[in-house]
Amino acid sequence: MIVEISHFFSILSAGLFFLAFIFSTRTYQGNHNLELLVNRIFSYGFYFIFISFLLYVWLAIQSDFSIRYIAEHSNKDLPTFYKISSIWSAHEGSMFLWILFLAGWSQLFNYLLSKNDLLKAPAIGVLAFIIFGFLIFLLFTSNPFETILPIAPINGADINPVLQDPALVIHPPFLYLGYVGFVIAFAYNTAFLIKGDMQINWEDVIRPWSLAAWVLLTIGISLGSWWAYYELGWGGYWFWDPVENVALMPWLAGTALIHSLYVSSKSKVLRGWTILLSISVFSLSLFGAFIVRSGIIDSVHAFANDPQRGLYLLAFSAVLITTSLIFYVYRLPQLISKNLVVAKSKESFLSINNILFAAAIFAVMLGVMYPLIFDYLYDKRISVGPPYYNTIFAPLTFLAAIFLVFSVGSLWQRTSKLLNFKSFLSMSILFAAAASICISYIYQDFQWWFVGALFSGLLILIRYFLLIVDSMIKKSYFNKPSAIAHIGFGVLILATALNASLSYEKIINIKPGEIYKDSDYEFYLIDFDLINEPNYDSVRAKFSVKNIYTPNKTFFMFPEKRKYFIRGQITSESAIKITPYKDIYMTLGDQLDNGYWVVNIQYNYLIRWIWIAAAIMGIGGFAALMERLKRK
Amino acid sequence: MNKIRKKRLVSVMTLIATSFLGVYLILSALNSNLDYFYTPSEIINAEIPNNKRVKLGGMVQMQSVIRDGTNISFNITDFSNSINVSYNGVVPDLFKEGSGIVAYGMIVDNRLIAENIFAKHDENYMPPNIEIPSE
Q1: B33·A592 Cβ contact <8 A
Q2: Does A341 have pLDDT greater than 90?
Q3: Other CB atoms closer than 10 Å to residue A340's CB: what's the count?
Q4: According to a count of CB atoms within 10 Å of the terminal CB, is the N or C end of chain B lower?
Q5: At what angle do helices A242-267 and A166-181 cross, to 10 degrees?
Q6: How does DSSP classify residue A27?
Q7: Residues A348, A359: Cα–Cα separation, whole Å
Q8: Helix, strand, coil share (%) of chain A residues, nearest 5
């Protein structure tokens, strides 16, 4: 019964969003009552989808296995926490969540935006159309409300054990909040292009929304990376998998957007480019949804494939993007500013970095699409390996870091004299060069990417250090959120480079009672425990580990292998010893006939700092958002 | 040609040249990092240079797994041909005889020295282009 109500409310919500869209197309004469009506209908559309989702959560908690989706992805014995998260563990439910967030952002926008805003009605119309389109997609191709009649199964099929994890409970929600958050920029700018009133300052309206979405996307991607590191047992943080790449593209475009928005709102140049970016970010989010949900590309993360879904998503995205681009091309002549970007001004450096970001997006897109193109042209399967992305991202990142440092302390709309001998920039370059040569020498690693990353990472950190010290002495203003976020970027470059250069692994054979001696550590395998849990059995190794330089400080590590009952799936649980400088990461392999076990020991240097860096960047973005909101 | 026009021409030409160079660099990076996917029969029928990394997909042949210390050796089969694979490391949890996997590494004398073994996070995964013969 409840499932029918939930289903009905979703249909009702789709109807209301459609109405809101239709009415919004009639509001162009400035009929205020009609605009209010549109806002009201839109709000109700959101309320109904919200209640529908709450009911669905309730059904999942109650383990109502008469609903096919819940029966296939949940289980009676799961903790409530995972019963709820099982909703977004597969296609239908996660699409439902995606749409809920889409409607949620839009409703927040509807609620917060002044009713006197000239673009409110058309922007709400665009949003209503997008939500309607996705609700139709949900209801017709991916219905989570489908029931199994007449007899419901007694127990559900469980969610994949690797997904039963706290990080994975919150990773998809953050990721989706980030992806769909950029819909506000897309809708408002499309409304702007439709209206064509060049006096409207859309930059100021969409900036906080884009910042918020960017922060959430940053958190979402980092959580996914962190989860993959400790759960999948490979010990890496980024694999250049197609599904990761399609999350990276909106992030890159979003990063370019928040910078370009800054330029446009400060000095009214690059407006056309900024609008194109705001269209691109959401388009890339849609592209991501298409790739992940159509099964067109082989990936460990992809959902089951269904050509019908892919086709609908492709067609609907094409309608949205083409419409927006047609208006864009039509308005472009008016958008081009009479003020040009002055050479060596702050705008010029930000523009260069925008081009670098565009190149990075192009390269990732090519890497994702090339296997498809190749398969189509030559009927041969290929994949694009991580070395491709590394080769491209390393130089782009170094260049971006250098222009970033140039932009610090440069002036808006004026040529800046930066390379004086005594300037902070020259000092930073000298210090960074000296320090990176020293560090390369210490680690005896002179590969171009390592030295380049050290130089560019240190350059950012030193330049900001000088900026902060200088501002504190002179008690002058500096852009704190920007400093925080960019320091995070600098730390990210250094951490990834040192991680890539220093990390190594050992594969060993060991049996209980034996000791394995490594250069710095001694691993003593004490014994194995057999553990019976409600939903799995496990074999757990007990290692006593000590650092040979501090032999009285021993610690234990427990890598384990689990066998889950319902799916019969075997998973490895890595044991991780965290230290500030490195992680010791231990994975249990197979047992051999002679009683020995294969064990993989990885030393992952500075890997924590990669996520810490991402968190610092997120904090910087959040601080920028707060500053904007305070100023209003 | 006046001065401004000349300047503009130079900057446009620079822009075009830089973007061509950029695209060229990206494409050449792409071209040198493609991993070709083969089935065992394709490896046997095709000439594959010895130092080229490839992906080999198929099923782990029954009774072919031999472990020796940290090394593991097994055959990947597509039910008409099989290729021997050797690997030093921990195989994925879903690796077992009869499961579909992909091995990544170099072909040396019709054997694959694997650097990585992938098994999809799905028990029913089968690498592309391979059909299980009906019994």
Answers
A1: no
A2: no
A3: 11
A4: C
A5: 40
A6: G
A7: 17
A8: 65, 10, 25
Interface check for A593 against chain B (CB to CB < 8 A): the answer is yes
| Sheet with strand A504-510: strands edge to edge | A504-510, A597-605, A582-591, A575-578
Whether residues A384 and B91 touch (CB distance < 8 A) is answered with no
Report the chain A residue with the minimal C-alpha distance to residue B90.
Answer: A589
Kindly indicate the confidence band of residue A629, based on its pLDDT and cuts at 50, 70 and 90: confident
Which candidate from B29, B35, B120 shows the least CB-CB separation from A382? B35
Give, to the nearest 10 degrees, the angle between helix A448-474 and helix A424-443. Answer: 140
Mutation target to probe the A interface, by most A beta carbons within 10 A, among B23, B34, B118 is B34
Spatial separation of the C-alpha atoms in residues A297 and A242, rounded to whole Å: 7
Which residues is A585 bridged to in the sheet?
A576, A602
Three-state SS letters, A12-71? HHHHHHHHHHHHHCCHHHCCHHHHHHHHHHHHHHHHHHHHHHHHHHHHHHCCCCCEHHHH
- Cα–Cα distance, A252 to A363 (Å, whole number): 12
Q: Residue B115: its chain A contacts at CB < 8 A?
A: none
Instruction: Give the pLDDT band (50/70/90) at residue B135.
Output: very low
Structure tokens at A121: 């009605």
Per the structure block, which two tokens stand in for A375? 């398969």
Residues from chain B that touch A398, judged by Cβ atoms under 8 A, are: none
Task: Compute φ and ψ for A142, nearest 5 degrees.
Answer: -140, 55
- Locate A256 and state its tokens: 């370019």
- Find, in chain A, the residue whose alpha carbon is nearest to that of B53: A385
Question: Are the C-beta atoms of residues A562 and A537 closer than 8 Å to each other?
Answer: yes
Quickly name the fold that domain B36-118 has.
Answer: OB fold (Dihydrolipoamide Acetyltransferase, E2P) (2.40.50)
* Mean pLDDT of the region B77-84: 90
State ipTM: 0.85
Domain ranges, ordered by start, for chain B = 1-33, 36-118
CA angle A116, A119, A122 (to 5 degrees): 120
So what's the pLDDT on residue A630? 86
Task: Provide the whole-model pTM.
Answer: 0.93
From chain B, the residues in CB contact with A356 under 8 A are none
Interface residue A370 vs chain B (CB under 8 A): yes
Which of A425, A453, A285, A280 is CA-nearest to residue A354?
A280
Residues of chain B neighbouring A570 (CB-CB closer than 8 A):
93-94
